Protein 1
Amino acid sequence: MAKLLEGKKALITGAGRGLGAAIAVAFAREGADVALAARSRNELEEVAAQVEKHGVRAAVLPVDLRDRQQVEKLADDALSVFGGLDIFMNNAAMESTLRPFLDIPEDEWDSTQEINFGAAIILLRRIGARFVEQKSGNVIIMSSIRGTSGVPMGSGYATTKAALNSITKSLAVEWGPAGVRVNGILPGPVLTPGVRAALEDNPALLEYFGNIAPLKGWNMPDKVADTAVFLASDMSRAITGHLLVTDQGLTAILQDAFTMVSTEAMQAAAAPGDG
């Protein structure tokens, strides 16, 4: 049976852990060579070993996305390491601290914008130029449902995701005539290893977020990775400019109903002795 991404070459940022690692392995399973970018070489090498088990090539490209020169070099290296690219998966992101907008330190705000949006723009310019020139290419941008509405205490992160949602649609329109597709993935809460570690001391809250959406049980990295495979493959060849929500129905809940459910669940999660 033919693999969905047979012979394709992909770059994935934020590929050292969590969603990026899951997407890298899913792409490899479907036959793609994968260039892996993140800060930690050790983490990238671990993911590369998993990728190569599927009989494809992996390239490890450590990068600090706050450094413009490193980001520009990443784009050039990714375009050359396999002799070209077919897929650019922009996944890297920095979670900002939950705090009121007026209390966010300027350096934290700047770092969030640089990593989540600024680095993406640099990569889109350089890789997108190649895609337009070759009249083919597939861009997938990992966004979030937090980029679709107001997020009190989380404006730094949400602002970057809203900007990514906007650039996804704009570039889809601009690059579509050249045969280049641009789509976004908007997950809700996902149980990555980092999220599990953050909530391990609060099992009630872990249970609450795992069942907040109509489809019960945590959304997992492999589910989101399957969505990325779909968008990267010819199965979605008629889709561009689309923000594909993968939140298990969370944003389909009416706000008034969501408030009642959330209040009750949060009270239960905070009750002494729970968990």
Note: The first strand starts at residue 9 and ends at 13.
Protein 2
Amino acid sequence: MQHTVRFVLDDKIVEIDFSKAGLKPSMTLLNYLRSGPLHKGVKEGCAEGDCGACTIVVAEPGNKGKLIYKALDSCLVFLPMIHGKQIITIENLALSGKNGNILHPVQQMMVETNGTQCGYCSPGIVMSLFALFKNHNNPTREIIEDTLTGNLCRCTGYEPILEAARKACTDGKDHFSGKEKKILSMLNEITSGRETLQIQTERQTYYKPFTLAEALRLRKENPEAVLISGSTDVALRQTKKREFLTVILDLSAIDELKTFSETSDDFIFGAGLTLEQVKQITANRIPSLNKILKVFGSLQIRNIATIGGNIGSASPIGDTLPMLFAHRAGIKVCSPDSERIINIEDFITGYRQTDLRNDELITEVIVPKTPYGVTIGSYKVSKRKDLDISTVAGAFRLKTQKSTVTEIMLVFGGMAATTKRALKTEKYLEGKEWTRKTIEEAMNVLSGEFTPLSDARAGAEFRKTVAANLLLKFYLETN
């Protein structure tokens, strides 16, 4: 077992011994950075991943001896999750010179385009632009806008910031490029050992295994442990609900859970793939799922949230769940002694409840390829297009023969305590002609099928109306 967390910050290896530092392992990276004197540019705005003021960039080894740069919300990241990574903050971007600091290209363009006003959100915006700079040359406006969806600015319009991104992101070369070999060597030194990271304090235990076999062993021995993979959901239990997490099992470093494969019948996603990785994979393979992931949270959130975590949280408004229902996905779960594949409809058993036993982990998500003649559509309705939770989500599966419905699935999120199919409406549509008149009749059936809650996002009647209208929208798009 390893007992200390090590990472690179300010071009030096930092080691945290929790037994001496007086810190709890579930301390967020945001709070750690702000506790010292050198990284006050990392701001807390919301502590729940909504505003982006705390955005930092993490660099980690990728393919061909290169570093991969990802923007993250540091308020959602527990300290052990950054073991073996480089942390880059706004303080690291400028170079110190004889005549003062030399700004990084993204900083310089923010100045030249007047992209900042009060400045509170600016460090997070600049860090998002830095990640864009390192990953894209001459990005399209769509890519730039997606990069900035996780950064909220209350002072100004975004046009000057978009212009700064367009002008700055031309070749990706900066002083970080020249230091990559040195940083890679430091990170490889940290990660050369694959022993499980175990952090034990007086009140809290944190496990971070590096192999699936070890994770399954720890899961069986610690059935009460809170599971995290990206922590975007669990972190809020601490930051917003003030819940103390006694035992944590962190699955974020298990490479066996980060695979993708394809057979003649299925797409097989490792449960540890981030939603941004799934978004990239599905672009040309599963357009309906890719469409939903384009409006899932923000890039900072998608860079750490995982497909297994989104399913395991079993939220009734989880964005991916209706679509996975419509695709008839299977969930592969494993224990130290067995494995089984469960249809996702059977896997979700109640409000934030699943069929996962306390010695099992989700290891794969199996999405069957869509047969010829089957149409699948996906929709999300929320108060704003980006960085918002669904008010109502809908996914539909249709097959017709000579305009007669032979197969139909109507799946909704936000209409009940779980993601749920409209079975009565499905039965009504089966065997009928796929016409406007039939759909309008089915909309009346659908309006009486659910009894949704009224909450801060929408009233019950609004949700019923939206669900019915999404069915009509699907019809119009299939004709």
Note: The domain at 105-168 is CATH 1.10.150.120 (DNA polymerase; domain 1).
Protein 3
Amino acid sequence: MVKRQRLKKRSGLSQRKRNRSLYQEDVVRSSGYGFVAGIDEAGRGPLAGPVIASAVVLKRHDFSVRIDDSKKLNYVARQRAYKEILDRAIVGIGVVSEAVVDDINIYHATMLAMERSVLDLCEVPDLLLIDGNMRLRFDMQQSTIVSGDQKSLSIACASIVAKVTRDRLLEFYDGIFPGYGFYRHKGYATKKHMSAIIEKGFSPIHRRSFHIK
């Protein structure tokens, strides 16, 4: 029993250390920025569904669960993290439909989704921390961070919120457009998804501008 308690304690310490390793916001706050938003997106690569972005402003940093790049977390871990993020942060969501993706291309659709997520916040941020190298069309301070979801706690939170929000939407679409397997692959180009497209044709939420071989 004592050994198990020690292992649990060490695990908690390791988790707090991991969260601190993602925490970069103290650097920008020391420069006078108070309302800092981390921004990330989900859904650039799928064949179906919208691209969704999230802007997250942290009110608290004391997470009891692992916060990391959403791709490094399994389904259960993402759901737990998502719940804590909503309790500890101000969150904005930006959605750009598959029709708009087809109309303006995925790059500009991603930019638009990020901008909409910032506009969805209750207050204008002092600084934007943006995953990747895409600058937004705002007259405000911005810092682009390649692999930002591994370096900034707020960007990591944004990646989780965007991913969970989009996954839940595709799970909802699975009931409206059955037979494509959206619940499982979330619109990505798996073999079963490709086979379903060949058999059934495109659904209303498929992106027509993406080349499907």
Note: DSSP finds eight helices and five strands in the chain.
Protein 4
Amino acid sequence: MTDNAKFWTRLSRKYASHPVRNRAAYEKTLERVTEHLGPEDAVLELGCGTGSTALLLAGAVGSYLATDYASGMIEIAEEKLATERTNGKAHEGLSFLVADAFDERVTSEGAHAQGYDAVLAFNFFHLVETPEELLARVRDLLKPGGLYISKTVCLKKKAWLFLPLVAVMRLIRMAPYVNFLSFRSLEETIRQAGFEIIETGTYPEPYSRFVVARKV
């Protein structure tokens, strides 16, 4: 298990106890994501955390594989799924898996023969140490014309404040790796990886960038 996976597993129960900070921005994100998904789509979510978003979106698509490299997060997601099924909500196409994007099970367990129709990543990309490699993998996982839909925390403007703090906290294993992105650098990285950006938004302002990008 990587240091980041250990960090998020250790934090998982505390993380799960916190409500969504900006409900309006979260609901706007879900609304825009749903607009791009179809009832027969095969969807992969990376960095799904405790599964709250997967549970809300899975009913709109054909199959939904939600993954996270932190076993503690997936344990909680499975608990939520079991509770919902007990309460009569089927979620037949939804499954959770402890895995990262490079795990071979991601391709064997969730994708159609041509790949996924959409790969989702919410509040995740800024925690990735090798973003170009991740996007190359995402592109490989998508079918022709498939969508990469993400919302990313972009703290470049606040790096002067947060970067020294994060560096110190990482030394004592109290913080994960954080990539201090700007909207421009985020979108340019996505384009250079072989995507056409077809929609952007800022939910909430001014630090979270929503991007819908099509594989070209």
Note: Strands lie at 42-46, 63-68, 94-98, 116-122, 142-153, 195-202, 208-215.
